[in-house]
Amino acid sequence: MIEILNLQKSYGKNLILKDISLSLERGRIISILGPNGSGKTTLIKSILGLVVPQIGDIRFDGESILGKWEYRKKIAYLPQIARFPENLKIKELLNLIKDIREQNADDNYLIQFFGLEKEMNKALRNLSGGTRQKVNMLIAFMFDSPVIILDEPTVGLDPVAITRLKELLEREKDKDKLILFTTHIMSLVEEISDEIIFLLEGEIYFKGSVEELNQLNGSGNLEKAITNLMEKRNV
Ligand SMILES: Nc1ncnc2c1ncn2[C@@H]1O[C@H](COP(=O)(O)OP(=O)(O)OP(=O)(O)O)[C@@H](O)[C@H]1O
Ligand SMILES: [Mg+2]
Predict the structure, then answer these.
(1) Which secondary structure element, helix H or strand E, spans residue 177, and what is its range?
(2) Cystine design at 181: which of 146, 150, 163, 188 (Cβ 3.0–4.6 Å)?
(3) Is residue 77 packed enough to be buried (19+ CB in 10 Å), middle (13-18) or exposed (0-12)?
(4) Cα 37 to the chain's mean position, in Å?
(5) 202 alpha carbon – ligand 1 mean position (Å)
(6) Residue 232 confidence (pLDDT)
């Protein structure tokens, strides 16, 4: 569904993504892991056309995305840092986004699902960190998009909200969607990922299942295996 071909991205003299090639298919939950600054957000933003690579191509359903924007309607995106006008109430923000997207949205169900009914008339600047993240998630999930990309959706969420997120991801996967997400919570990765892509210094250092990573590493514990990858580079 999404193909990344020999992608290279630099900021000034810093080469951030070095010759990345990947094929991402529907019906899968894919975790992009890697230490801070390894290029996860840059890779995600490249798929969204928010970052323009110097070399390489990205294809969405077989067509290059470079210079195009229509394909973006098929992608739901939760950015690592979401910025919306702080004076808007949640209710107003949702209406604004629905107007812009001109697509059907199933927000009532999600408002209940995340227990946001009582927060709808609060201005964004008055929300707690976790509530803000729930709003971001609501925006990402309210349109029926075939691709869902979440850049650190777990930040600030309490355990109940993380369980809810997990349920949502599994439900969307069952609808044959492609889900791509980053997180630093390894238990979530272990529970739901069909595939892990581990980035290190802008390269794909490991790609495979949780089981394959554990086996390769010999630790039987994903948190340890990932820490080993980050520290020792022994895969
Ligand atoms: N707009 C920019 N201009 C210059 N450098 C940038 C820019 N955006 C990102 N970088 C650099 O690119 C590198 C990769 O950043 P990126 O945000 O992709 O990392 P990440 O893997 O998402 O990290 P984190 O886990 O902290 O979110 C970092 O060294 C960062 O400083
Ligand atoms: Mg990031």
Answers:
(1) none
(2) 150
(3) buried
(4) 16
(5) 10
(6) 64
CATH number at residue 82: 3.40.50.300
- DSSP-derived pairing of the beta strands 147-151 and 203-208: unpaired
Pairing of strands 28-33, 195-200: parallel
Tokens of 209: 């299942």
Q: Which two tokens stand for residue 84?
A: 């919306």
Mean pLDDT split into 10-residue runs, the chain, 235 residues:
96 94 96 94 96 95 92 92 91 91 86 94 94 93 94 93 94 96 92 94 92 80 83 60
pLDDT at 14: 94
Task: Identify residue 185 by its one-letter amino acid code.
Answer: I
* Helical (H) or strand (E) element with 45: helix 40-47
Q: How many structural domains are present in the chain?
A: 1
- Residue 166's domain spans which residues? 2-232
Pocket flag, ligand 1, residue 46 (CB < 6 Å): no
How far apart are the C-alpha atoms of 47 and 54, rounded to whole Å?
A: 14
Is any atom of ligand 1 closer than 6 Å to the C-beta of 219?
no
**Residue 121 near ligand 1, beta carbon < 6 Å:** no
pLDDT of residue 227: 83
Distance 38 CA to ligand 2 centre (A): 8
Q: Does the Cβ of 11 fall within 6 Å of ligand 1? A: yes
Q: What is the DSSP string of 99-166?
A: HHHTS-B-HHHHHHHTT-GGGTTSBGGGS-HHHHHHHHHHHHHSB--SEEEEESTTTT--HHHHHHHH
Structure tokens that stand for 100 in this block = 């812009």
| Structure tokens given for 114 | 């995340």
